[in-house]
Design goal:
single chain; about 220 residues; alpha+beta; Glutaredoxin; 8 helices; 4 strands; about 50% helix; globular; binds glutathione
Length: about 220
């Protein structure tokens, strides 16, 4: 198997961490966004969206980080990260969908609009969009805050793929104007999970500034 990533991409880190957690050893292709590696005809043939991560397993090409993680669990022969019980699976998948569709879409767009765009001269910041993202992040953070009351993991008592989805944008917590102080359960959960072995091992190189990442909603 070959996993294509950008070293500073949160969705790549989400998959790389699961690779480490499962002890898998795919070949890792570290692409260079600035050099245009994700816009070559060769890469677009793997993923027409021009985005990472992408997993190639023989003739099979898979993009979308959360489903790559489900596939990796199957390739590993199963794992408590994604147990076979249908209700537990559905619960984990629910949070993976929610992470992409709502929570990290709101927060990720806020990061892109208020942090990355001005930093790299990628066009004018839209105050209306920033305002909308702040509202949406607040709306969905309230849902997560309530869910994490008395819990240390998203589903059941063990770490699952749902946790690797939720942690994805944690490192940007202090870098936007969003106020996380009304969300003590989320802060506790992020503070704990960001120290776990596989997540730490999947961190981008220290030399890369935290803003040097593209998250596009
Ligand atoms: N829903 C996709 C999102 C992938 C994504 O946003 N990838 C970013 C890096 S985290 C990317 O490749 N951006 C490059 C671009 O937008 O051109 C997933 O979960 O894999």
């Amino acid at each position: 198997m070959k996993l294509h990533i950008l070293p500073v991409s949160p969705n790549s880190r989400k998959v790389l961490a699961v690779v480490h957690h499962l002890g898998l050893k795919p070949e890792i292709a570290c692409l260079d966004f600035a050099a245009g590696d994700t816009r070559t005809a060769e890469f677009l043939a793997l993923n027409p969206n021009g985005m990472v991560p992408v997993l190639v397993d023989g003739d099979f090409r898979l993009w979308e980080s959360n489903v790559i993680n489900q596939y990796l669990v199957e390739k590993a022969g199963g794992s408590p990260l994604f147990p076979r019980d249908p209700q537990i699976r559905a619960d984990i998948t629910r949070w993976q969908f929610w992470e992409q569709a709502h929570f990290n879409r709101a927060f990720g767009t806020l990061i892109f609009e208020s942090l990355i765009k001005p930093k790299f001269g990628m066009g004018e910041v839209s105050p209306g969009l920033v305002e909308y993202c702040l509202r949406e992040t607040s709306r969905f953070a309230a849902v997560l805050e309530g869910h994490l009351e008395g819990r240390s993991t998203m589903v059941g008592d063990d770490v699952t793929l749902a946790d690797y989805a939720m942690i994805c944008l944690e490192r940007y917590r202090g870098l936007t104007s969003f106020d996380w102080s009304p969300f003590p359960n989320i802060n506790r959960y992020f503070d704990d999970f960001r120290e776990t072995g596989a997540w730490v091992k999947a961190a981008p190189p220290q030399s890369v500034p935290v803003e040097r990442v593209l998250v596009r909603a």
